[in-house]
Amino acid sequence: xxxxxxxxxxxxxxxxxxxxxxLETATSNExxxxxxxxxxxxxxxxxxxxxxxxxxxxSKYHIHGTQFEEILSSNSDEIFYVCNHC
Length: 86
Known about the structure:
Largest sheet: 3 strands, mixed
Strand content: 15-25%
Order of helices and strands: EEHHHE
Helix content: 25-40%
Number of helices: 3
Distance between the termini: 34 Å
Structural class: alpha+beta
Radius of gyration: 13 Å
């Protein structure tokens, strides 16, 4: 079953990037963050300098204020933010 939620990067060079994540493939917020970063990396495939920038800052990304269980039980039209500026 497909169970998608929208995630948006909040802050930094990639502020505003949005992507869908299938929650059936995630087991934690860290899995979600990794999927968001991987999707962004694919989007930047031919932009090597931006890919390098993403690689340098990917450890800063996090979801705060929302537990994984809350994301799983949320409405499918909710948007969650992946932050890198705290």
